[in-house]
Structures are given as C-alpha cells and as structure tokens.
Amino acid sequence: MSTSQPEAGFTPTGTIAASADRRRVVFATVVGTTVEWYDFFIYATAVGLVFGQLFFAPLGANSAIVAFATVGVSFLFRPLGAFLAGHFGDKYGRKVVLMWTLILMGASTALIGVLPTYEAIGIWAPILLVLLRILQGISAGGEWGGAVLMAVEHAPRTRRGAFGASPQIGVPLGLLLASGVMALMAMIAPGDAFLVWGWRVPFLLSVVLILVGYYVRRRVEESPVFAELAERKEKARMPIVTLFRKHALLVFIAALVFAGNNAVGYMTTGGYIQGYSTNPEGPLALERGPVLWAVAGSAVTWLLSTLAAGFVSDRIGRRTTYIIGWILQLVGVFLLFPLVNTGNIWLLFLGLAILTFGLGFTYGPQAALYSELFPASIRFSGVSISYAIGAILGGAFAPTIATALVQATGSTLSVTWYLAGMTVVGLIATLLLRDRSGIPLGPDHEAEQSVSPIYGMAKA
Q1: Alpha-carbon torsion (178, 141, 216, 380), positive or negative
Q2: What region holds the Major facilitator superfamily (MFS) profile domain (predicted)?
Q3: Is 10 helix (H, G, I), strand (E, B) or coil?
Q4: Which of 21, 125, 159, 345 falls 20 to 30 Å from 196 in CA-CA distance?
C-alpha cells in the first residue's frame, strides 16, 4: 500500500479520514498549544514585572538580569524534554506524549502561583522557582513536536502549511491570553496589591485551562503516520541514535532557522519589552497596564500573520515564504526600539505590530517545514530536538543578553544589531535548505525522505 495518495488524513487501513476528524485535530492542537504556551509565557511576563523584586531582591541592580536568566534556564532543559518526547513519541505515539506534557506544564505553573517569596522563605524561594521553571522547560521541549506532527500528519498534502499553522498560532494566542490576564489583574489589583497577590491569579488559572486542554486532546485520534508505522512494526528502536548518526547537520541547520525567529520573538514572549518599558528607574517608566495591552494587541497581529504565512507557504513553498519573512522581520527589528523609545504607548504598539508581522512569516511555515525535513520513523525526534536546540541558540537568553547590552552600552542600538544578526543567521540557514513542500510523509517513502534537503549533500 502506498501513502503517496493526497494524504488527506489517511488511516492505517488506507481509508480517508473524515473532514470532521481533521477539524477536531486542528481544534485540539490550537487549544492544547494555547494552554501550554499561556503557562510558559505567564512566567516570562511575571519576570519582567515582579519576579526581580519578589524573588531576587537581595541582588540589587542585578536582580533584573538574574530574573531574566531564569527564563533562559528553562531552555537548557528543553533538549531533555525533546529527547524524552522524541524517543517516546517515535516509539509509543504522538498523543500520549502530548497528554503528559500538558499535565507537567500545568502542575508546574500552578505551583508557582502558590510559591512563597524571598521575604517569606529566603533562598529557597528562588531555588524552588528555578526548579519549577525547569519543569516548564522540559514540558515545552516535548510539547511542540507532538502538536505539529498531529496537525501536519493529519493534513492533506496541499494544505500542510495551513494545518501546521494551527499549533503555531497557539503561541501568539498564549501570549495574548497571558498578557491579557496580567493586564486585567493589573487593573483589579493595582500597585502593591499586584505585587502581593495579583500576579498569582494568572498562574492559578492554569488549573482550569489544563483541564480543558486535557479533555480536548483525549478526543483526538493518533497520528495516521505513526499508526501506520505501528501496524507495520517499523518503529525505530533507538530513534535519537539514528537521528544523530544520519541527520546531525540537518538538525543543526534546522535549529538555526528557528533561532533566528526565536531570539527576536523573545523580546515580547520573554518579557523584555514589558520590563524595559515599565521599569520605574528606566528611561520610559510607562504604566504596566497599557504596556501589557499593547503586547496583547501585538499578539493578535502575530497570530494573523502566522496563520496567513501557513496558507501562503502552501501556495509558494516554505522556503520562499521564509525568505519573505526574514526580510519583513529585519524591517521590524530596525523599527522596534526607535518606536518604543518615544515613550508613546501607541507607537510602542506599532513597533511591536510591525515586528510581529515579520515574526509570523518566519513562524507560520515552521511546522510543515520541519515535518517535511525528517523521515517518518524518526520525525518526532527530529522536529523536537531541532526546535529545542533552536530555542537555546535563539530565545533562551535573548532577554538577558538584551538587558546586559543596554547596561553595558547605555543604548538599545546594540540590541537592534544583535537581533538583526540573529535574523540574518536564520536567513542563511533557510537558504541552505531545499524546499520539500508536498513530499510524501508516510512510511512507504522513507528512502525519499532520507535524501538530505541540504544543498550540496546527496544523502543524509
């Protein structure tokens, strides 16, 4: 049996999955990733607003840098989550991994919401905070690969970009939700009340969101590609070993593609712009609420451009869409701080909106691009580990680097050049890859999938 048919959500028996099933998959990936990234971003938002004061106050002027560093610490553990999820996802299925990553993320986030501060328990407060952030990182490292494969492997061949954009929009939706809830709490509990208890409520809300996400994901069928592999007993015994033995260079190049997007994206998702613009001792000292609403608004433009890029990539290819995206992102990078530094909240929003439009075009096609790079039997490991390494090279310490650059130079121009450099890295990595839009994803085509997509290489 060949899986080179239109791949419109084929099942192990070769029948075509109903469009209602595919809609359920899309809905489940959107809901699940939104919940997952809400949990992840609510931490980064809180770092920019309160964690420096509440958990790292004894460090004085360095409290902001160390607080932002805890955002990056979680990225160091993303590869562990990716290795575990990739191994178990290629052996036991995409669905089971998605259930456990959701539970781990939700539990970690809720516990942060009840964590005592440094004033209450001393050094144990930042230690426990970092440990819970590490668990968030492990969860995030395993979540993305499973979500995108559930979406892309259920998709018709000509609509993988659009289907793959569904888990991608969960990221700006998570940012929108996290920023919106934080902004709402800044209104309900202004001033000192926000520091005392207002910031905790968004973390505790995670419990409700996780229950919703768990219920939705339970109702989704396993990926048809994995079901086919399981039926044929063709699952890789040691998928990670196979991945690095045959595709190590591809993993690194794919990681650089994401690094170029992630470093720039973490100016908002990592809480840097929020912290920089609201710092009472900084050059702008804007109010929390308006800044959070501006970030929430930019999440909408990011969402729309991410979704649009997925559809566009089905028409003109992943590679061309990415190249357009890198150009747009570079424009956004050079406009960001000149607009933010005006101190005008509407111009701050404009700067973020322009930036996130480019970010969407370098993020929307990623799920389909990654899925089409790796063979079926090791695909979960390939996409997860590439994503996790890219996150470390890109966003892990981007807010920390930006904070240090401004302190060292006294100017945000140094941050602009840093972000521009990362954008160019992403562009170069993209140019090294052939476009594989529409390549068959099923296990019958492992030989074709194993041909290296890197220019200048015949076989992986």
Answers
A1: positive
A2: 25-438
A3: strand
A4: 345
The Cα 307–Cα 363 span in angstroms is: 9
**Cα separation values, 313 from 24, 157, 161, 211, 318, Å:** 22, 12, 6, 34, 5
Distances (CA, A) of 460 to 21, 189, 251, 432: 35, 56, 11, 14
Beta carbons within 8 Å of 208's beta carbon, 6+ residues apart = none
The answer to whether residues 203 and 113 touch, using CB atoms and an 8 Å cutoff, is yes
* Cβ 380 vs Cβ 239: under 8 Å: yes
The mean per-residue pLDDT over the stretch 266-270 comes to: 80
**Token pair of 243 as six digits:** 């991945």
Provide the pLDDT for residue 164. 92
Phi, psi values for residue 2, rounded to 5° = -105, 140
User: Cβ neighbours of residue 218 under 8 Å, at least 6 residues apart?
Assistant: 99
What are the C-alpha distances in Å from 358 to residues 115, 267, 300, 344, 350? 37, 14, 13, 22, 13
Any idea which architecture 19-450 has in CATH?
Up-down Bundle (1.20)
| CA-to-CA separations, 250 to 34, 256, 457, in angstroms, rounded | 28, 10, 10
Q: Kindly tell me if the per-residue pLDDT of 94 is higher than 80.
A: no
From CA 213, how far away is CA 31, in angstroms rounded?
6
How does residue 20 score in pLDDT terms, banded at 50, 70 and 90?
low
Return the SS3 of 190.
Answer: coil
At residue 18, the pLDDT reads 54
Q: What are 378's two structure tokens? A: 């090791």
> Which of these, 96, 98, 31, 43, lies nearest to 67 by C-alpha position?
43
Separation of alpha carbons 108 and 349, rounded Å: 31
- CA-angle at 425, arms to 266 and 368, nearest 5°: 75
3-state DSSP helix/strand/coil percent for the chain, to nearest 5? 75, 0, 20
Please indicate, yes or no, whether the overall pTM of this predicted structure exceeds 0.70: yes
Give yes or no for a contact between 58 and 118, defined as CB atoms under 8 angstroms apart.
yes
User: What residues does 433 pair with on adjacent strands?
Assistant: 454
| Cβ pair 78, 392 in contact under 8 A | yes
Which tokens in the block code for residue 346? Answer: 């509407």
Contact 7, 154 (CB under 8 A): no
- The separation between CA 89 and the C-alpha centre of its own chain, rounded to angstroms, equals 18
